[in-house]
Amino acid sequence: MTWAMTEKGYSQRRACRLVGIDPHVHRYRSRRPDDAGLRTRLRELSGERRRFGYRRLHILLEREGWEVNWKKLYRIYREERLTVRRRGGRKRALGTRAPMAIPQGPNQRWSLDFVTDSLVWGRRFRVLCIIDDFNRECLGAVVDTSISGHRVARELDRIAELPRA
Q1: 52: Cα separation from own chain's centroid
Q2: What is the pTM of this model?
Q3: Has residue 153 got a pLDDT over 90?
């Protein structure tokens, strides 16, 4: 636009018509105030409070005396590319898992499982099933309405001490 007007001597109207824009677009001057102070303070606050989003930063700025609309603050927040730092996700196992070794004899590996059911009148109960993985023998079934971790440990100790052929 400016090149066509200075080098070729075209009028502003003709240069705008050649480019295909309205002259008002070429003449437009932004009246938006300079928000340099607000931008720097917003960057400082977001650096200090990494887990705060624009809403909580808006509250902090209001407490400091900045009178700014939250929509304007959001626009500046986006223009500065400030985002809440994402927390790390669930830690996953690295590499491939080694397959579980197949037991070569009895009492090398046991499996525990809770089975839950309810009686006709609504009372619930759980059964702890303890199975030897080598011969698929049920070593014990502990029935209780509320099995605690201490009780499970006691039952496992009791079953481990039993003599088996």
Answers
A1: 15
A2: 0.44
A3: no
